[in-house]
Amino acid sequence: MKRKRKFLKILILFITLLLFMVINNSNLFLKQTTKDPLLLAHRGMAQTFNIKDVKYDTCTAEMIYKPEHSYLENTIPSMEAAFNEGADMVEFDIMPTKDGQFAVFHDETLDCRTNVKGTTEDYTMDELKKVDTGFGYTYDNGKTFPFRGKGIGLMPSLDEVLSNFPDKSLLIHIKSNDAAEGVQLAKVLTKLPKDRLSLLTVYGGDEPIEALKEKLPKIKVMSKNTMKSCLIPYILVGWTGYVPETCENTELHLPEKIAPYLWGWSGKFTSRMEDLNTRVIVVVGDGGFSEGFDSEEDLKRLPNHYSGGVWTNRIDIIAPVFNK
User: Fold this and answer.
1) Phi and psi of 201, rounded to 5°?
2) Using one digit for the tens of pLDDT, what is the confidence trace for 60-101?
3) What angle do CA 47, 51, 55 make, to 5 degrees?
4) Cα dihedral value 102, 107, 109, 110, nearest 10
5) Rounded to an integer, what distance in angstroms lies between the CA atom of residue 308 and that of residue 171?
6) Which residues does residue 311 pair with via DSSP β-bridges, in sequence order?
7) What is the DSSP string of 137-178?
8) pLDDT tens, residue by residue, 123-156
């Protein structure tokens, strides 16, 4: 008899705990938002390609689809076009130059896209302005090069981007894992007023992000380490509604296949993170090769009333869906 009572108490406790976990993380009773998701345009308006064929050493400029527009990634015209289309935020890449600046450019070397060899560190910013960033683009295996000669002067410096978009949200990508680049970027950003700094987010390798955060503790950042330090403890205790302090003031890029397994996904999870000034961005696939929601069909996979961020390589297709 005593054993039955003890078992019954344990069973009631277990059921009560289970109900608490379900109710506390359910979106059924959450007030539904009417706001649209935040649209993050990857590299502005860019030429696109089949992401399935990409490896770490792939020259993507040599495998673009037939161009539907004239914009090249990581240029000021492409960023302007993205914002004009309806982007809430634009992502771009930075690489160090020979004269201690940052050029806005994606690849480790200049060989693929441009008419020169080497890296950005082999050239001054003035020299990079003379480089043709459209030189290597082809959609027909080298039969034609539709942007050759049209990319001269289009590679901007980080300073130019910041001055051209003084009131826009920007996501800056440090491409390396060199702590020195984090320190260098901090020197640039510390000159900005607080209201401007609040519109910037930086992501990249663990070492540069840690170095940057040490100099600018209030700036929003993301790296593998910041993601793990937030999500691992959240997976353990998030069912209670508690969000670890390590999640504060960061950005989370969540693969769409993993996100649904997080406590409170999507409405409660997003709300909890927003309370800590943390932005949630959903990406396609495993997040390894910047796959985005690039078609209207892709958007159907988002949760109902989703109000977090959406990563896209085709802001020209995605933004009009919400503008309807």
Assistant:
1) -130, 145
2) 999 999 999 999 999 999 999 999 999 999 999 999 999 999
3) 110
4) -80
5) 15
6) 40
7) --SSTTS--TTTTS-BT---BHHHHHHH-TTSEEEEEE-S--
8) 999 999 999 999 999 999 999 999 999 999 999 9
